[in-house]
Amino acid sequence: MKVGIGRTGVLHAFQNFGIEPDVLVLGKGLGGGLPISAVIGPEWLMNDRAAFSFQTLHGNPVCAAVLRTIERERLLSNSSKVGYCLKELLNELAVRQPAIAEVRGIGLALGIGLRDEALPGVTARELTARVVYRAFQLGLVVYYVGVNSNVIEITPPLNISHEEAMRGVEIIERAIEDVVSSKMDFGECQKFAGW
């Protein structure tokens, strides 16, 4: 789901990079979390056996409506436009906030990498966990991911508005500031192991 249907501003994430896959496998991102899947490939491969395409999660008409909704509500365009704006706001925040090492991603699949020693004696992993916890306290659910667990994952719904994106950035900024300036007690945070 992280880079599922429409998340990067186009239907499939690979379309951003000029890649044409031999076979495309779609799972929960196809149905917005509802039970549907698909395998798309060349006819010579897909028509190999008569029962090849009979699977439990294929052909669910309710789930297929997700694609119509994405088209009707112009969610690809929204993902692209709001994602661009969101990334710009996060880049501006990175200029103001030294704890941010980088902002990366495309569309509505973004990440904020935090740096070691932004708070003396605290690793980037611990810092990120604290920021995610503080954001949760302030009303925003984000995740921390990455090899070193130092990246705040930003993957909002495709129908997020510009106003909601701006509010999310405000909360992230406050969460980072509260953590870096030690304005909060981290006793509760010690029990927090992430989502």
Automatic annotation (TrEMBL):
Cofactor dependence: pyridoxal 5'-phosphate
Tell me yes or no: is Transferase among this UniProt entry's keywords. Answer: yes
Q: Which Gene3D superfamilies match?
A: Aspartate Aminotransferase, domain 1 (3.90.1150.10), Type I PLP-dependent aspartate aminotransferase-like (Major domain) (3.40.640.10)
What SUPFAM superfamilies is this protein classified in? PLP-dependent transferases
Keyword Lipoprotein present in the record's keywords: the answer is no
InterPro entries to which the protein is assigned, alphabetical: Aminotrans_3, Class-III_PLP-dep_AT, PyrdxlP-dep_Trfase, PyrdxlP-dep_Trfase_major, PyrdxlP-dep_Trfase_small
User: What are the UniProt keywords, alphabetically?
Assistant: Aminotransferase, Plasmid, Pyridoxal phosphate, Transferase
Q: Which GO MF terms are attached to this record?
A: transaminase activity
Similarity field:
Belongs to the class-III pyridoxal-phosphate-dependent aminotransferase family.
The protein's name in its UniProt record:
Aminotransferase class III-fold pyridoxal phosphate-dependent enzyme
Annotated organism of origin: Sinorhizobium chiapasense
